[in-house]
Fold Potassium transporter TrkA.
Amino acid sequence: MDLGPFTLQQVMFLLILAGGLYLFISERLRIDVSAMLILLALVVTGILDEGQALSGFASEPAIIVAAVFIISGGLAATGITEHIGQWIGRASGRSESRAIAVTMPAVAAMASFTHHVMVTAMMLPILTRFAKARGLSVSRLLMPMSLAASLGTCLTLVSAPAFLLADNMLERTGAEGLGIFSITPIGIALVVIGVVYMLLARWVLPKRTGKSGDDEYLRLDRYRTELLVTEGSRWSTRPLAELQKSLGDKFRMIGWLRDGRLRRDLGPTSPLISGDVLLVEASADALASLHDDTGLDLYPITRFNATTRDGEPGEDGDCELVQAVVAPGSEFIGRSIRELDFSHQFKAVIAGLWRRGADMAPRLADARLREGDLLVLWGRPSRFAELATHHGFLMLVPFAGEAKRRQRAPLALAILGVTVLAAVTEWLPVPLAFLLGAVAIVATRCVDIGQAYREIDVRVFVMIAGVIPLGIAMEQTGTAQLLASGLRHVVADWPVLAVLLVLFTMAALLTQILSDSATTVLLGPIAIELAQSLGVAPTPFVVCTALGAVVAFLTPIGHHGNLLILGPGQYRFGDFVRVGVPLTVVIAFVCAWMTRWLWLDGPLWPSFAG
């Protein structure tokens, strides 16, 4: 059977590719399921063997993505992302446009020396909470943030593997290699254009609330509790303002007890002393963190342990926090916590109290319970099983707060710095550097192993691992080389600027299927050959190709960062096409124009003279 220039295997591959793109665009199935169907089709048709089909799970992008999820989880668990979010919140005010103008340059700067997926994963929960707190649409913020992370990789040579591959190709041809800041002028121009575009075209962005975690409805603020500055505390003699800054903006002082007396003469600049009791309102995360701080403890727990002889409720490792709602008609209504003698009656401690309106006595023990009060209980799970059946409680639910290991924040930052340094200096291969960073984050207990596994978005991991074999199949069937040869014959006699635009466009389309590295490796030699046939330096041709592979913001599968925001922003496939196509057209022209200016002495500004 005559298939023209195509072989039977190439035709089968193109059919599978077309079917896969249909599934991606139509969203009839989840993206990770579609990726697995494509992978199985490639194996069943004999285009790939089982080893090649499963190679994506051990590929560099898949390893890096899994590692950055864990590292980002460590940064969140130690409170680092919370501090960054507070800074962005203060700088952004309540305006959507101002939030975009502040967030995008900051994200681009962070992505210039690290992996853009890590930056995207780190910023995702920050912007989600920021949008919710200010009543903004999260989908209006996440896409600009992801775009800024992608554009930020163009600020230095080391932030995207495609640029390192381009540098290596140029050196092999005998041309001068690229310096670490050779592409920085292009990167700056792209970041500025990206910010301006997103500010002017905000109406194109979808306006959706996005998805929050299933436990978001449990994350209540204004929990009343009491803190004890323990003996030998690291906070002793340090001013209250330092503690408030460390615990974040969801921490509010109600009163200050010293030697059992309420002191109204003490303020933010006053030093803390061991034995001081602070009457506070704290967020769920702060409340969960306080008992783990070696310098602070929840005063109700400390007082109970000091007065209990038999060791109940047990060692801290055996205990947990839960929430209990005071039921209508409960025997506890109208009685204070002190009167109930709750800890001895139920062998559990009321460590915190949430009440709508927060109208209650300053001391937790003096608070008289009302119907609907939410008690934060600390004790053994076996005791909670008994409490769950008590008619005085409406229900027991898990406590939604996550402890922040703030003392390990410097360690987490150091691990991140070493990880980036190891990758940038090529002391270790990039995937191994990030894997080492992820292991170090867990080994140093910046995040516990269970939470580390939960941080990995299996959907994204499977999607990436399933799409990578597409690139292998394209190369192995010769489809890529066939398309590349056709390109060479078409554009060989075109003007330089037009050829650069074509190379960018080809790379931009191909990177939607292949990784940016594979796209650069495939099209780079063609770019060099075209430059040599035109008798010009190959550097702008190779760089423009690598740029097309890195910054084409066309579909959610073109960049792994886009996959991270796909669910939380409730984006559809078409949202990226609608927003990304006009922007990518502008970016393409800027990249072609500036590479010609930098390496071929072309004009920086267009000439309109006749």
Notes: The two ends are 57 Å apart (CA to CA). The first strand starts at residue 223 and ends at 229. The chain has three domains: 59-211+404-458+478-609, 223-308, 320-398. The domain at 223-308 is CATH 3.30.70.1450 (Alpha-Beta Plaits).
